[in-house]
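Worked Example 4.2. Consider the chain below.
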Amino acid sequence: MKQETRPDHTGNDEPEQANGQELLSEQLAERLRNLIVTDELRPGTPLRERTLAEQLQVSRTPLRDALKILAGDGLVQLLPNRGAVVAELTPEQIEEKLDVLGVIEEFAAIRACKLATDAEIGELRALHHEMLAAYERHDRVGYFHLNQRIHRGIVGAARNQTLSDVHSLLNRQLYRYRYQGSVSSEIWHTAIDEHQVIIELLTARDANKLGEYLRRHVHRTWEQLLGAP
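Applying the procedure from the previous section yields the following structure tokens:
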């Protein structure tokens, strides 16, 4: 008589479950990151696990992992006996990080002008048009995400993984402040105009001009928001 075969339950599904848990934590981190960026969770706000878990309708384990991800990004502080709170950078810390981010984007722009394919530049131009549409709709969050995709696209076209990794970390730490700087009602139109110049210089593959312009662009929206000269 043919022996019945049974499914193998030797734990082979554990990696799949772990991957699913990791994906959920990443998704939760992104949701919380957006709440922080748009000031729905302001600096200094306590992030109480039970309250957030109920609000987001998730268990506390992936939420705890998401908070650790955001702590690694510098967006959240994990304090002994106080739990997690939304972090706040001082103006001096913001300036320091923007100095480095500006230099990184300048270097990326110079390399992208030499290494980007015509197709990649075409994609960035298309993203710029999508961003213009978001601006016309007054869709600040949509505009900002497209704005960031353009900046990341230029960095990606530089073909340097270390550059991309450092840029990604700094950019996440400055996410909230770059959002405020780029979509402030007073200067939003200026940011749009500057992105038009960025795309034109990239299309012309004018490496030196684009590098210098992009470095100043990284600083300018924040300086204007502060009313700096």
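The first strand starts at residue 46 and ends at 47. Residues 1-8 have pLDDT under 50 and may be disordered. Compare this with Example 4.1 before moving on.
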